[in-house]
Design a protein that fits this description.
The protein has nine helices and 13 strands. The chain is α+β, with helices and mostly antiparallel strands. It is globular and about 55 Å long. Residues about 1-15, about 245-255 and about 260-265 have low confidence and may be disordered.
Amino acid sequence: MNNAQPLPDLPIENSRSPCANCVPRATCLTAGLDSRELERFEALAVQSERILRERYLYRAGTEGRHLFVMSSGSLKSSVLDHQGREQIIGFHLASELLGMDAINTGEHVGNAIALEDSEICKIPFPDLQQLSREIPALERNLKRMFGHEIRRAYGVMLLLGTMSAGERLATFLLNLSHRFLARGYSPSQFILHMTRRDIGSYLGIAIETVSRRLTLFQHEGIVAVEGKEIHLINLEKLRALVQGAGPQRGGRRVNEIAAAMMNNIAA
């Protein structure tokens, strides 16, 4: 964890959302919608918002009447403890859903911050809820995306309570690999836009432990790291680190963690 330093909000560029040409549409809310249904969805006053790196999409305590779908880039979500320390609770990629924390009370309980220049689709939730009742495919997609978020939270809780530091990091890298693959990107070579401190906060381990474990993985020929770029050289060895944890602490439970985390893909 680290002391959060709020950054000033910058103006956001708005434009109509061209859903039909959106790259991650196959894994998004609009997957499976026909042309007429897509027109009705776009009529919800869906807007595309560009958010610059390190700027806030929303802050804890602010009103939340929209859901947000990533169309490109990446964000992190976090909460602050009573001492103002930041705890990372998630990293979000293209086609994933944000803003669900405000559905119950109408107020965000956490922050969402861009890890890189990103594009977000902003959708009024009450209108989306009504339209989903009229379009079965949209309702299925919305439930699927809610389900993935619940599954992710389940996986994180089990991960923090059961796995060693090395197993947590291996699971985290495999999770990213699966999510990039689902979006048509390389599952073995990608950029870690989050800091080592962010990774440590998310996994519940010290930043020094993150660095040491990555170095160990390199020495064992499992990964290659150059700055923020990571290359998963031996995915089988990485999987074995997670799957091999089972016999020591109850194989079935640990394998459930791996499944929950590695299958957290919006597809």
